[in-house]
Design a protein that fits this description.
Elements: H1 7-35, E1 39-42, E2 45-51, H2 52-68, E3 73-76, E4 90-98, H3 100-105, E5 111-118, E6 121-129, E7 134-139, E8 143-146, E9 149-150, E10 163-166, H4 168-172, H5 178-184, E11 187-189, H6 194-203, E12 208-213, H7 215-228, E13 231-234, E14 246-251, H8 253-264
Parallel strand pairs: 3-4, 10-11, 10-12
Antiparallel strand pairs: 1-2, 4-5, 5-6, 6-7, 7-8, 8-9, 12-14, 13-14
Amino acid sequence: MIDLSSQEKIKEIDDLVSGWIKTLAVQTKEQRAKHGLKVSNKDGDHRNLVTNIDRANQKVLIDKILALDPDAHFVCEEAGEARAQSMDGQVWFIDPIDGTLNFVLENRDYAIMMALYEDGEPVLGWICDVPAARLFHGGQKTGIYENERALEPLTDKTLTDSVVIVSGRRLVVGEKPYGELAQRACAFRVLGSAGISFTRLFAGSAQAYLSKLSPWDLAAGRALAEGMGYQVKNLDGTSPNMLLSNSVLIATSSIHREVVKMVKD
């Protein structure tokens, strides 16, 4: 296991992994520009895409982690790595390209995401907005940063004063409470990438995000959001199970109370 016994040790891991991800972000853009993409579908879903770069990025990150800890446990988006069966000990989460549909079709609004948890609790998270070269990283014990700039704790805004980000698919089918949340907010957005949605929260241009998220979609964002003071809860107020998909609301405390009441009514 990696030594996480002090703030200094945690900061060392943050710095090390931040360097990996910054390098990988540059390589991702270079690979696409030089060699293009090889794209395939997962599970026969024409919207669920995977590329050669998704797979290559995941292998790079797994290899680097295993060099630090040969016994490391993983929860990764792409196939090929044995999945952790519990949250005991240290678990690494990897989403090598989040927003692959955006990556393939638009070459914008996609991210590389990683997180490290210990005994079920988030220690560090990393979300790199690759096109914008912005890396959000850190955790509760280190503080949260955009590149080298420390971010201030969030302002506790209410729903009518806020921008919310929602899952477009669940908004279209009328799943509760997506429509009501979008209507009550000052404005709503649909971005197609969990990582990019989280960066909007950290930058202060949105104050809530509601979607059904896989573990690799949520892990890094949760580590960073909780470090800034956001509530990260299931719609029933429970904590997410980090080995399963969850319908999760990430929001200011005031918005979280409003939405929980909305769901109950």
